[in-house]
Amino acid sequence: MDGTFSDNDLSRVVAADKAHVWHHLSQHKPYETTDPRIIVEGKGMKVWDQHGKEHLDAVSGGVWTVNVGYGRESIANAVRDQLIKLNYFAGSAGSIPGALFSEKLISKMPGLTRVYYTNSGSEANEKAFKMVRQIAHKRYGGKKHKILYRERDYHGTTIGCLSAGGQDERNAQYGPFADGFVRVPHCLEYRAADQGAPVENYGEWAADQIEAVILREGPDTVGALCLEPVTAGGGVITPPAGYWQRVGEICKKYDILLHIDEVVCGVGRTGTWFGYQHYGVEPDFVTMAKGVASGYAAIACCVTSERVFDMFKSDATDPLDYFRDISTFGGCTAGPAAALENLRIIEDEGLLENTTKMGDYMLDQLRAMMDRHEIIGDVRGKGLFLGAELVSDRDSRTPAAEKMVGAVVADCMAQGVIIGATNRSVPGYNNTLCFSPALIATKDDIDNILAAVDGALTRVFG
SUPFAM superfamilies given for it (predicted)? Predict the structure, then answer.
C-alpha cells in the first residue's frame, strides 16, 4: 500500500462502514464485535486490506469481474477523458463510445448484430426475458411465452431473474415468483448417478431431458431456453460432450429462442471471447456484464441476432409496437469507454492465449492434487474458470460438508490467498471450491494459489 490513508483515516472508514454500509451476501450480527474487511487498494493480481495485509486474488474481485487485473491506468484515463467530454445521455440517443464499443463487441460475436446497453447482469437478463415475452404477444397471441432455465444455473437478483433461478437457497424467502418460468435438469456428469442417468452419452441424455420438459409443457408455449455456457455459482459445471450440439438441435426443432447468459464466462474468462464459442452453438441472445469492463465502470449488454431485432421493427401505427424499455444507467458513457480499453488490453497482451495456457496448467495441477487429497472428488473447468468438488467419500461421492468447505476458504484467506466456493446456493451440494484468477495470471500466481489450497486441505481434512 502507498500509505495514502493514515491509521486514523482508516479507523474512521471502518467505523463508517460498520455504522452505515449494508454488505452483500453478509450476516451483519458478527460485525457487532468484529470489523468488516475493507479492501483499500489493488494492483495486478493483489489487493490490500485496511490492516495492510496483502492478498493474492484468485476470484477476480470476489465475483469473477476484474478480468484484466487491478490498477489499469489506461482504463481509468479512458473513463476520465470520456466523462469530461460527455458523461451521460439517455439511451434513446447514441454516444461515441457506445457506438464504437458495440461495433468492436459485435466483431467478436459472428451471427449477432445488436447491443442493448444496461447496467448489470441481472438487468441484461431481464431485458432478454421481456423481449421473449413481447415477441410472444406480437407473434403468437401471447402463448409462446414460457422461459426454460436450468437447475443450478443463476441469472440474477431481481424477482424476474430469481424466477429463472436454479439455486433454491438463493431463491428461498423471496417468492412468490413470476409465472411462466420452467426448470430443466442440470448437466453435471459427475452427478449423473443422482439423476439415474446413463454413463455413456450422458451429454445427449441431459439435453434430451430439456426436450422432455418442452414436450410436457407444449412446444407452442415455450419461447426461450436460458442457460449458462458453463454453470458458475452452481458448481463450475462444464457441459458434457454432445450436450450443446443437441441443445441447438432442440431449439431449432421447436422454434425456441436460445438465450446464453455469459455474465460470468464472457469476455475471455474461458479462453475464448465467450464461453458458448467453444461449443459451436448459435444463440439468439447473449447477455454479459462482469468482465465487459473488468469492473472499472458499470456496464452490461443484452446482445441479439438481427432476427430478434427485426421482430421489433414495424410500419404499423400501433404506438406500443416497439421494445418499450429503458435502462437509465445504460446511458452512462463510462461503461463503453472502459470496455473498449478493456478489449484492447485483452487483444494486445494476448490474454485469451494466456487464459488457455494458464487454465490448462492449473487444471492439470488440480488433478494431480487429487492423488494427495482423497477429499477432492472431481476437478473441472474451462480456461481460468475452475472448480474442485470436495467429497467425504469418493466411492459414494457424498458431498463434503459446507462448513468444512468454508474452512478451506478461510484457511486460504489466512494465508493471504482469496479463493471462492459454492455456498448457500444448492441444498446439499455447496461443496465446490471455485477459482477464477485474472486473465493476467502467471505460472507463479497459479503455483501460489495451488500451494495455499494444498496446505488448507491438509489442515482442514488431514
Answer: PLP-dependent transferases
Does domain 10-71+351-461 fall into CATH 3.90.1150.10? yes
In this model, does residue 12 exceed pLDDT 70? yes
Helical H segments across 237-395, by residue range: 243-253, 306-310, 334-348, 351-369
256 near 220, Cβ under 8 Å? no
Give the bridge partners for 378, in sequence order.
389
- Find the helix or strand (DSSP H, E) in which 96 lies: helix 96-106
Cα–Cα dist 302/293, whole Å: 15
pLDDT at residue 149 is higher than 80: yes
What's the mean per-residue pLDDT of the chain?
96
Q: Cell numbers 458453463 label which residue?
A: 230
DSSP 113-143: -EEEEESSHHHHHHHHHHHHHHHHHHHHTT-
The three-class DSSP label of residue 276 is helix
Three-state secondary structure call for residue 287: strand
Per-residue model confidence as pLDDT tens digits over 281-297? 999 999 999 999 999 99
In the chain, list all ranges with CATH 3.90.1150.10: 10-71+351-461
CATH fold of 73-349 reads Aspartate Aminotransferase; domain 2 (3.40.640)
Instruction: Report the DSSP pairing between strands 398-399 and 285-288.
Output: unpaired
Cα 201 from Cα 204, distance rounded (Å): 6
| Exposure on the CB side of residue 159, measured as CA atoms within 13 A | 8
Query: Any long-range contacts for 39-42 (C-beta under 8 Å, 24+ apart)?
Result: 40/1, 40/5, 40/10, 41/1, 41/2, 41/70, 42/66, 42/69, 42/70, 42/71
For residue 164, how many C-alpha atoms fall within 13 Å in the half-sphere facing its CB? 27
pTM (whole model) above 0.85: yes
* b/e burial code for range 94-116 (CB count within 10 A of at least 16 → b): ebebbeebbeebeebbeebbbbb
Burial of 28 (0-12, 13-18, 19+ CB in 10 A): exposed
